[in-house]
DNA sequence: CGTCAAAATGAAAACGGTTGTCAAAATCAG
DNA sequence: CTGATTTTGACAACCGTTTTCATTTTGACG
């Protein structure tokens, strides 16, 4: 069992950036896997619940998933053109978030940070066009 | 014209936190306004396009809107219990985002930051329970 | 091996928020 | 007033996601 779930995790861990559920489903079908869309969703949900993968929503309302290298807290620097993702640690932001929360008397501070930009190769591609 | 659009903006500017489109629609109908859901969406879109309001997606995939006091770039500190929102400026984060992007050769850096916590009164309420 | 119960699977339907369509209504020239 | 233009809103279409439910797979036990 959980053969499918592991297959999904495999795909994710070999992917560079964020992948959508449908994207993963399409890839698995293209690779000849006999799997249903439902199962992909369920696998992703289970993996997310157990903290093995990250989930976030795109501006278009699609959920995207990513297997992160480390289990520790970190953020992402995402290329807005090609989707290339770099994991970045940011002690400065962590401290800032804590400070800003404390300043207003808030407790149990958490935060989400996403940095977007155009990666070197896409910047080159864009300027040459 | 744009009577409806202004009505929508009115609602938003008198609201404390983020409101969903359907939420706003419901309130306007409850208040007796003759307006369609489509028009609310259109008004919100127009306002967002012209930068007069902020949009973001909840984890549930719903778009939520907010009229911000200032037109300048800032972030939000949101109480996860009561939804109370404080606008916070964060020069430190801006600089950090720029730096982290530049470090990896990314250009045209933008970022989204949301800080969540439990506000003073909710913290008190929780501990007394 | 059978047998049966529990878990996993997937096709299709349901769902919910959002967006498109299109005809009717309001608004604006002239 | 008349005709053109814009705005409007009821409704259908869309799209990603979730639920449903019948079927299949799995695993324990005799």
TrEMBL record, chains A, B:
Compartment list: Cytoplasm
Keywords, ordered alphabetically: Cytoplasm, DNA-binding, Metal-binding, Repressor, Transcription, Transcription regulation, Zinc
Entry annotated with the keyword Heme: no
Keyword Repressor: yes
InterPro entries reported in the protein's UniProt record: FUR (IPR002481), Fur_C (IPR043135), WH-like_DNA-bd_sf (IPR036388), WH_DNA-bd_sf (IPR036390)
Entry-linked PANTHER family: FERRIC UPTAKE REGULATION PROTEIN, ZINC UPTAKE REGULATION PROTEIN
Family: Belongs to the Fur family.
UniProt-recorded name of the protein: Fur family transcriptional regulator
Organism: Sphaerisporangium corydalis
Source taxonomy: Bacteria, Bacillati, Actinomycetota, Actinomycetes, Streptosporangiales
